[in-house]
Write a structure and sequence with these properties.
Bound molecules: adenosine-5'-diphosphate, magnesium ion
Largest sheet: 7 strands, parallel
Shape: globular
Strand content: 15-25%
Strand order of the largest sheet: 12-13-11-14-15-10-16
Radius of gyration: 26 Å
Number of strands: 22
């Protein structure tokens, strides 16, 4: 039953099954193993006059003094009071003359239940944009699942309830000795969805986090094949010519990286190197250098990037820098004519093509190389260890992994334990930091007018909305509505392209049109691809900036000001607490991705009841790298011990789980 399609669950037909498949829910097992993002404490209802500041809580009372006023074009502020003691505020988008939909809805309520965080205000406490209910909600600990387009949390809860009938079929994957006194797997999974108490929840969570780390680390160690590598030749004529053609002086960080890559590649031992460098630090040069070196030694190079847009961009760049040296460069992506794919594959097989840049299409079985000697994986966090291994499996290649996601040093060691790490810490000289400003929402119209004025000067801009699943308040519909309203309002005089969170292929088309300059402003509910390089884009507006992680904000703004004109980034925050102001100020005042990543960890929000998962990249389903370092250490010890004393063959369930595990 666990492997049955989600269509066996209530309310899931073929169409919906298709839609949620893209989000990783295919089988009953997937539903069981997609854990709540957080919980709402609906255990008690607090009196409005008794709400505590800074804690999420449920309160209820009589709703009075309801007002609505316009604060900027299309944007309104609704205010009301609960039992005359707690102020409630909501921001809405409404352009027409009449009342907003939300106001009409609230007017129907006499008693209102609201759930949110109160902050101090001039007259007692205030809750800003709380969730509200016109009828009493069910009490208890409510799981909150990552949001999906067209799926409500209540629906998710019903699916989980149905799936839990089969939870006992989940096999225990941890060997008994390693599991110790921890709860069993099925028991822990049931508990994590509907905790019966805080202590049961914590036991269950510890077990699942341990399991996650254990499998992750085991997967890493397991992928460390002990093969002998290729000893590439020392730099010769071709490499010298490549370096002579570079239009700029390399930074010290780049020079160091090249030296390390040279040493690795020339050694017999296979290279396994991670290049970590902030956005714009110039990692591509390192990859190109490695590529030239590989080709000079008679090898071939495969470079894997996460999306087709990025592949196209990269191939263009590589062609410009490598083809003049007589090195052939080809593109291989799924969305390419079959004939063309065949041609490239044939060229790779006989060795006519030196360098291939592509997406996952590179790791399909049909792709074979004559002599692959260097595999490059760009934006590493988008690929799993298995995909990395699959690419390596195409040859006996050296591996170069590049990542712009700065991970604090302490954590990098554990996560990328199998890779040697090089950091490129400085940006090329003369690179201007993106001018970042925290703007009062009252000046929102000015920000957009400024954006439009830059567009009229021939520049381009991004407007970014928070990731859909980061918040259940601002759902996809609201974000989409807001985008539409900008398009018809403040941005009506420019060419706008919308990218909605759950768009498929069309998303890439919009990005490409933007890159080609056919669109002036790119509005996206999703994070703009790391690595997107549109030098003409100079302005970025980030809506609800307080909802993003700091590292994420830093990555995002790295998309602008890549050309010779400086970039400017406006952070619009509508619910600014002193804490979120501190956080945003880190990004405003620093341009050091590593520092920002450290601060991001240090300044984690107080979180709610059990803490929200905030790490930018969902590397783990449940584990939090900062909070769970103790568990990580335990898991690392156990993995080491297991590998030293036993063979995985002794544990079939563990092996099966390892194969299933995606990260
Ligand atoms: P990332 O590390 O984000 O992948 P890229 O390799 O895309 O960075 O480089 C960003 C931009 O900086 C490119 O346009 C590249 O040509 C340029 N660049 C790289 N190294 C230098 C350098 N040492 N001096 C000046 N510009 C550089
Ligand atoms: Mg890059």
């Amino acid at each position: 039953m666990l492997d049955a399609s989600v269509t066996v669950l209530p309310g899931i037909g073929e169409k919906r099954a298709q839609a949620i498949r893209n989000l990783g829910l295919e089988t009953v097992r997937d539903v069981l193993l997609s854990f709540p993002r957080t919980y709402k404490d609906f255990q008690t209802i607090v009196e409005p006059s008794q709400v505590e500041i800074g804690v999420e809580q449920l309160t209820s009372g009589k709703l009075t003094n309801l007002t609505e006023r316009r604060i900027s074009q299309g944007r309104r502020l609704i205010q009301g009071q609960l039992d005359g003691s707690l102020t409630l505020t909501w921001f809405v988008y409404h352009k027409g003359p009449g009342m907003s939909y939300l106001l009409r809805k609230l007017q129907k309520a006499e008693t209102l239940w609201v759930y949110g965080v109160a902050k101090p205000s001039l007259f007692g406490a205030e809750m800003s944009s709380p969730e509200f209910f016109l009828r009493a909600p069910r009490l208890g600990l409510m799981p909150v699942y990552p949001l999906m387009a067209g799926v409500s949390n209540d629906q998710r809860i019903r699916w989980v309830e149905a799936a839990l009938k089969h939870v006992h079929e989940l096999p225990e994957c941890l060997p008994e000795k390693i599991r110790g006194a921890r709860p069993g797997r099925a028991e822990a999974v049931a508990e994590i969805h509907f905790p019966k108490s805080r202590s049961r929840y914590e036991e269950a969570r510890e077990r699942l986090v341990f399991e996650e780390f254990f499998l992750f680390l085991l997967g890493l160690q397991g992928s460390q094949e002990v093969r002998s590598g290729i000893a590439h030749k020392p730099d010769g004529e071709l490499v010298k010519r490549y370096r002579a053609r570079l239009p700029f002086q390399l930074t010290k960080g780049q020079e160091d990286a090249l030296r390390q890559v040279a040493a690795d590649m020339e050694a017999e031992r296979p290279m396994r190197r991670l290049i970590q460098g902030d956005v714009g630090s110039g990692k591509t040069v390192v990859a190109e250098y490695g590529a030239v070196k590989a080709v000079a030694s008679g090898g071939q190079v495969a470079m894997m990037v996460p999306t087709e847009v990025l592949a196209r961009q990269m191939v263009k760049r590589m062609k410009e820098s490598l083809e003049p040296l007589g090195i052939s460069v080809e593109l291989l992506i799924g969305n390419m004519k079959g004939k063309e794919q065949e041609r490239v594959r044939a060229a790779l097989e006989v060795g006519d093509c030196d360098v291939v840049v592509g997406t996952h299409a590179l790791i399909t079985e049909k792709v074979n190389f004559k002599h692959l000697s260097l595999a490059v994986v760009d934006e590493q966090h988008r690929f799993g260890v298995r995909q990395r291994s699959a690419l390596l499996g195409k040859g006996n290649a050296d591996l170069l992994v590049m990542s712009a996601t700065p991970i604090p040093r302490s954590l990098a060691l554990t996560i990328y334990g199998d890779l040697d790490t090089t950091e490129i810490r400085e940006l090329p000289a003369g690179r201007q930091a993106v001018d970042t400003r925290l703007v009062d929402p009252a000046r929102r119209d000015d920000v957009y007018r400024y954006l439009v004025s830059r567009v009229h000067q021939g520049e381009q801009a991004y407007v970014v909305f928070p990731l859909v699943d980061e918040s259940e308040h601002l759902d996809l519909k609201a974000a989409t509505q807001e985008m539409e309203s900008l398009k018809d309002g403040l941005l009506s005089s420019v060419r706008v392209g919308l990218i909605h969170g759950q768009m498929g292929k069309e998303k890439e088309a919009v990005f490409e049109a933007f890159a080609a300059g056919e669109i002036d402003v790119c509005l996206a509910t999703t994070v703009i691809e790391v690595g997107m390089n549109v030098p003409n884009a100079t302005v970025m507006v980030i809506e609800n900036a307080e909802r993003f992680g700091l590292a994420q904000l830093h990555q995002l703004r790295g998309r602008v000001g890549r050309g010779n004109k400086g970039g400017i980034c406006f952070l619009l925050a509508y619910n600014l607490t002193p804490h979120s102001r501190d956080r945003l100020n880190v990004v405003r005042t620093s341009n050091d991705g590593f520092f920002i990543a450290e601060e991001d960890l240090r300044l984690r929000g107080p979180g709610d009841l059990f803490g929200i998962r905030q790490w930018g990249q969902p590397l783990f389903r449940l584990a939090d790298l900062k909070e769970d370092q103790d568990i990580l250490t335990k898991a690392a010890l156990q993995v080491k011990e297991l590998l030293e004393t036993h063979s995985l063959a002794e544990y079939p369930e563990l092996r099966r789980e390892l194969e299933r595990y995606e990260w």
